[in-house]
Design goal:
By secondary structure, the chain is α/β, with parallel strands linked by helices. 51% of the residues lie in helices and 9% in strands.
Length: 451
């Protein structure tokens, strides 16, 4: 019966398509929700577009890719259906609740309307270069870092230098999110310390958290590799507290509420054109964490809001990625051209981190060198250069603090209140209300407790 209904929907839709395009078989094929090649299949994405009165992406770049590539025939047929609604986060949980010291500091400066009207944060730009306010913001950050270091010592047994850069990547483990690129950087730092232990080095604690889908073998290998690298780095007396590597087990909201207020650096390093939006990036930004990222997802709009001087953007753009793919990506071009990269890959391949089991990460190396759809090695050199800039900037406390304040002050756009108001006005035809409703357990001003 369901299939009968779908066939009928598609029949009515195809009649409308014919009215516009006539008997253009290619257009009919592209716009049908029934795929005819080989065994018949229902294209659920096409069915969803046909059945929806509005279709939206969740960041500007995502919406543009949908229109230009993913669903181009549908956009050409129904341009009025397609919109953008950039994602947002709730400032009540992701600042007011999880970072009360920063919330109080902000309220002292600009009042307490900002949790409902997040664009009020823009007023903080007035104090971005003020040494006193910079000092207060950095004291809050250091306090949050101290608390996280204590928690992680108890949870993992690893002693973390609370004065190091807290470099954090927390998200689902997936090849496109490129936790592997992060791991390559960790090994690069390790090699630099070992090569010259007395050279100046900005201490860093690299944390990765997230879960792998149960059947996703490569994601599990990525987690395993990060932990194996950590075992070597964390137990090397030459390295000491210059570099620590921590896997954040069982990443979840309650853990995120501890991690995000303490982050110095937020890793948003997906291959350009693969991340729809991201919301973790917004949470870090709101709490004064600086972003190292590609021009992907909401990073693009974050950079527009705060200015490129306040974010560490690196790597290929969507156009660059398409050009590399069109030419034919050969990972060996990058592997052979960069001695540091070659050394890192060879260490993984030769079992440096897995003594007694040299082939443990053979599949990871094969992926990177032969079958990497996400072009990890192509962005390695730019990523390392951007990370070097991070270290240099971190040593200039005033500069880092000013950038952090600009991040906080530029977060107004990324409130979920703005997102939901746009959905209400532009899709559902409703005007949002800011009327304060009574708490669920209050009736007529009196508290009522559940029986």
């Amino acid at each position: 019966r369901h299939l009968e209904i779908i066939y009928h929907i598609n029949h009515l839709h195809m009649e409308q398509v014919k009215a516009k395009y006539g008997d253009d078989e290619e257009k009919l094929r592209q716009l049908s929700c029934i795929e005819e090649e080989g065994e018949k299949r229902v294209n659920m994405a096409h069915l969803a577009i046909i059945g929806s009165h509005t279709v939206n992406g969740v960041a500007f770049i995502h919406s543009e890719l949908i229109k230009k590539h993913l669903f181009r025939p549908f956009y050409e047929y129904w341009p009025e259906k397609f919109q953008n609604k950039t994602n947002g986060i709730t400032p009540r949980r992701w600042l007011l609740l999880c970072n009360p010291m920063l919330a109080d500091l902000i309220s002292e400066k600009i009042g307490d309307d900002w949790p409902v009207h997040l664009d009020e944060l823009a007023k903080l730009k007035e104090w971005a270069a003020d040494p006193r306010f910079q000092d207060e913001v950095m004291k809050v950050k250091q306090n949050n870092k101290n608390k996280l270091a204590e928690y992680l010592k108890e949870a993992t047994g690893i002693d973390i230098n609370p004065c190091s850069i807290f470099d954090i990547q927390v998200k689902r483990i997936h090849e496109y999110k490129r936790q592997l690129l992060n791991i390559l950087h960790v090994i690069t730092l390790y090699n630099r310390i070992k090569k010259d232990p007395n050279a100046p080095f900005t201490p860093r604690t690299v944390m990765i958290g997230g879960k792998a889908a149960p059947g996703y073998y490569m994601a599990k290998q990525i987690i395993k590799l990060f932990n194996r690298v950590g075992n070597v780095v964390n137990n090397d007396p030459v390295v000491g507290d210059k570099l620590k590597v921590v896997f954040l087990e069982n990443y979840r909201v309650t853990l995120a509420e501890k991690i995000i207020p303490a982050a110095d650096l937020s890793e948003q390093i997906s291959t350009a054109g693969t991340e729809a939006s991201g919301t973790g990036n917004m949470k870090f930004m709101l709490n004064g964490g600086l972003t190292i990222g590609t021009l992907d997802g909401a990073n693009v709009e974050m950079a527009e809001e705060m200015g490129n001087d306040n974010i560490f953007i690196f790597g290929m753009t969507v156009d660059d990625v398409e050009a590399v793919q069109a030419k034919g990506y050969n990972a060996y071009d990058y592997y052979n051209a960069c001695p540091e990269l070659k050394q890192v890959i060879d260490m993984i391949r030769d079992g440096f981190f897995t003594p007694g089991n040299e082939d443990e990460f053979k599949d990871v190396v094969d992926l990177l060198l032969h079958n990497d759809r996400f072009l990890t090695l192509a962005d390695y050199t730019a990523y390392i250069a951007a990370q070097d800039e991070v270290s240099t900037t971190y040593n200039n406390t005033a500069k880092w603090a000013e950038m952090a304040i600009h991040n906080i002050a530029s977060s107004g756009k990324f409130s979920s209140d703005r997102t939901i108001a746009e959905y209400a006005r532009e899709i559902w035809g409703m005007e949002p209300s800011y009327e304060k409703l009574p708490d669920p357990h209050h009736v007529d001003g009196k508290e009522t407790l559940p029986e």
